[in-house]
Design brief:
The protein is an all-alpha fold and 150 residues long. The chain has three domains: 3-49, Arc Repressor Mutant, subunit A (Orthogonal Bundle), CATH 1.10.10; 55-97; 102-148, no CATH class. 75% of the residues lie in helices and 0% in strands. The longest helix is centred in the first third of the chain and has 16 residues, at 3-18. The chain is elongated and about 70 Å long. It starts with a helix and ends with a helix. 23% of the residues are buried. Pfam families: RecX_HTH1, RecX_HTH2.
């Protein structure tokens, strides 16, 4: 292995050891470090042979974490995973393996974020920023308010 390839491999492995990454994220990192595309391809093939990438597991963890901590909609999470370079079929598989209750996710988000007296427009905007369409956001807002008054 020539010195340049060795340095690229070391950079990629350090990057992967910090946290799981997709092939695309590693490719972008090596590209930012000014390695040429042929060398980057060689490094990615080598890393794949050594099983450094498990994009299904990464996608599953990402979905669970984003639902739990950010209250994002599946469409917003799907968009994030696409940006990370994960294939659509891998995203679909990961989503099918994750169990979640969307209403529970939204209500938990609202319980954490909404202070008494917040106006409905602000709450709707919050849900829409998290990827929920207006109609669904309104439906969940009404359900959450009803739950609060029980």
């Amino acid at each position: 292995m020539d010195d340049n390839k060795h340095k690229a491999m070391q950079l990629a492995i350090r990057y992967l050891k910090y946290k799981p990454r997709t092939r695309e994220e590693v490719r972008k990192r090596l590209s930012r470090a000014k390695y040429d595309m042929d060398l980057i391809s060689e490094v990615l093939i080598e890393l794949e042979k050594e099983n450094w990438f498990d994009e299904l597991s990464l996608a599953r963890q990402w979905i669970e974490e984003r639902l739990r901590t950010r209250g994002l909609s599946l469409s917003a999470i799907r968009q994030e995973l696409r940006r990370k370079g994960i294939l659509e079929e891998v995203i679909d598989m990961a989503i099918s393996e994750v169990s979640y209750d969307e209403q529970e996710v939204v209500f938990s988000l609202l319980d954490k974020k909404v202070k008494p007296g917040k106006d409905e427009k602000w709450i709707l905007a919050l849900l829409m920023r998290r990827g929920y369409p207006y109609e669904k956001a309104l439906f969940y807002l009404r359900g959450w308010k009803q739950k609060e008054h029980e």
